[in-house]
Give the backbone structure.
Amino acid sequence: MNLKKIGINLGIYGLVTFAVFAFIYLFYLDSKVLFFNNILTSLTFGLILFLLKKNIMPVKVYSHVVLIVTYIGLIVINLVLGGIHSPMNYWFIACILGAAFLLGSKGLLLWSSIILSTYTVLYLVDGHLGFLSDYQIILDASRIYYLGLSTLFGVITLIFVFAWFYLKINGEYHDYEKKQNDRLNFLLKILNHDLASPLMVTSILVGKEKNNITPKNLEKINKAHASMFELINSVRKVDKFFSKEPRLSQVDIKEAIEDVVEDINILFQEKEIKVEMNLNDQRRISCDEFILKNSILKNLITNAFKFSEPGSTIQIFYNENTLVIKDSGSGISKEDLKDIFNFEASISRTGTKGELGTGFGLPIVNECCERLGIKISVDSSTEGQTGTTFTLKF
């Protein structure tokens, strides 16, 4: 169920509820003010629902408008029915629940503050609403009881409606997530199979023609084949890592970092980048060694290389289960920093010597860290040469 459907359903609920109470106010309380207030609110709901369905009004604008219309309608009702003593005050919860679903956590916080402030104001002006005496209705015990009862019934119904929305959305989200995971696993299997077959064929052909290939070129071909087979093996290991419980072992973090730096040393030589390592802590950590080396450390250190200026220094520190990887490169803008670990954002930046990226490296790092219980944080700025610092707490 998407946001537009939720908005439409809530709009219909609001339209019907205000219309029903309009006639309750007219025939039970003999209040034309509340009758016209509710009819006007219902008609407004109908108008904005029409605009939403016709895609004239964006969902985000509709979400704000429907909450404001509800709020104004409720303010009028509660002022006429006694302010802070009104039995209809409980309906303000509709604004809070609606904000939670339509606007998320920020909307929930905003409207909770607005409703709390409203209750505070109603309390402070209690006894000072004489200017509304011509419109106010004095409720006897019987009317308070029945209005309170109808309000309670309405609010309980509203909570059930929102609970249904929540379960519906949650179920659809998990179904979508499962389909995406199944699709990803299927694609990984295709990748493994379709890469392995041609590589085996070319390996056989190279074996047959090795006498016609210079030793230097043969060595390059063999290395390329080995790298491709290693890539396929890596994909399989990563697939197992995310589909099953991680296989943890006691890993020497100092040795793991040194291995990764040695593997990509040719990159540092190309840009004459110096790597300073302070790895005095000899304690081992419980981790998946393959994922730590290839999906976390290699991505972070390669990232530091990519955005470091030629001749600069990358610093790597490890002490008391905390690893810090710091460069003095171009840094990350505040806008990019917010979504740096988000797959959907796919933030791809060009390195200092034009190195290209996919935008998936850091989201992969974050996913792996979450799976292994590693806390990762990033501090960066594009002002000056402060660069970027990644901190991992094991």
Summary: The mean pLDDT is 80. The chain has three domains: 3-139, 187-243, 249-393. Residues 187-243 form one domain.
